[in-house]
Automatic annotation (TrEMBL):
InterPro entries, alphabetized: Lgt (IPR001640)
A Pfam family reported for this protein in Swiss-Prot or TrEMBL: LGT
PROSITE patterns: LGT
Name of the protein described by the UniProt record: Phosphatidylglycerol--prolipoprotein diacylglyceryl transferase
Subcellular location field: Cell membrane
GO biological process: lipoprotein biosynthetic process
Binding site residues for a 1,2-diacyl-sn-glycero-3-phospho-(1'-sn-glycerol): 135
Phylogenetic lineage: Bacteria, Bacillati, Bacillota, Bacilli, Bacillales
Length: 339
């Protein structure tokens, strides 16, 4: 690989190098935290709740992301086990991160007494923000890039700045900046979710599920352009089906990145993206039909533990505090004009 146009190490503290990759991931996490805190204020949820969630969620996401990646690349790690822990060199999978974060959220929200679907709705735009910024860590590391492309495609057709074009010169050729495509797709998704969550028809859980649908659509088409996809050997029919769904991208001048046939013929993330889209749509329909999503996004959010605390009144104070012991609904404040 040619020398990096951008040094992946920002600075060193003694013998400890500080990588751009880690700083960028941290910035993405803080951006997601800010969006969650800002929206949580509308429902009276303290910012400490989201800060504690971040402290628990980030390690869970990193662990899940690394386990997912290593599981698919075990042949590369089984004889170099210590490399499993070198996440600063890249090699984390976003779907694994989501699995780790969701497991953590289920436990944490239950512990705090908040309904899972209501809180993940609030966090959904923040997840996209983290992914949008985090992809620039891949840019610095020169990873998660696409297939070979002409320099003129980047400079003349997309009018990309020099620092991006130069960083996409890898192994003697220019490559698709798939990190940029996914980052921009996530930015559009944030705007979409922020508009969608102000619509009165939106039910609990549907912002979160819409996040999965939006991200997975983009991931399906962008993943095929990459040259480092996790893959497996599937049937020729499945491979042809996947290629057929992706084929409209050729109308815009895009081509699929090289995938070694010996490694596999079906990209795992593409197949998973399709399954997630299907499951998310089915969940939205089922939850509406069965009434499980009777609550709307704009409805108050109250912790069951806080509700129980508010309704406990000492015997001697029953007469004087009865009226004040009723749980107060936390109605969101309309901030559409500030959005």
């Amino acid at each position: 690989m040619f020398p990096l146009a951008i040094d992946p190490i920002v600075f060193s503290i003694g013998s400890l190098p500080v990588h751009w990759y880690g700083l960028i991931l941290g910035l993405g996490a803080l951006a997601g935290l800010y969006l969650a805190i800002r929206e949580g204020k509308r429902y009276g949820i303290p910012q400490e709740f989201f800060m504690d969630m971040l402290l628990l969620g980030v390690p869970s996401a990193i662990i899940g992301a690394r386990i997912y990646f290593v599981a698919f690349k075990w042949e590369d790690y089984k004889d170099n086990f210590m490399d499993v822990f070198k996440i600063w060199n890249g090699g984390i999978a976003i779907y694994g991160a989501l699995i780790g974060a969701i497991i953590c959220a289920i436990i944490y929200f239950r512990y705090k007494g908040y309904p899972f679907w209501r809180l993940v709705d609030i966090c959904a735009p923040g997840l996209l923000a983290g992914q949008m910024i985090g992809r620039w860590g891949n840019f610095v590391n020169q990873e998660a890039y696409g297939g070979v492309v002409e320099e003129s495609f980047l400079r003349d057709k997309f009018h990309l700045p020099d620092f991006i074009v130069n960083q996409m010169y890898i192994d003697g050729a220019f490559h698709h900046p798939t990190f940029l495509y996914e980052s921009l797709w996530s930015l559009l998704g944030i705007a979409l979710l922020m508009v969608l969550r102000r619509q009165k028809f939106v039910r609990a859980g549907e912002i979160f599920l819409s996040y999965f649908i939006w991200y997975s659509i983009g991931r399906f088409f962008i993943e095929a352009m990459r040259t480092d996809s996790l893959a497996f050997n599937g049937s020729s029919g499945l491979a042809s089906f996947m290629n057929g769904l992706w084929s409209p991208m050729t109308w815009f001048g895009f081509e699929q990145g090289y995938l070694d046939p010996a490694y596999g013929n079906v990209r795992s993330s593409q197949l998973l993206a399709l399954l997630i889209i299907l499951v998310a749509i089915v969940l939205i329909v089922i939850r509406r039909v069965t009434g499980r999503s009777s609550a709307h996004y704009s409805d108050p959010i109250v912790s069951t533990k806080q509700l129980a605390t508010d309704t406990i009144v000492p015997d001697q104070d029953v007469n004087t505090t009865q009226s004040s012991s009723q749980p107060q609904s936390r109605m969101p404040v309309d901030r559409d004009k500030k959005e």
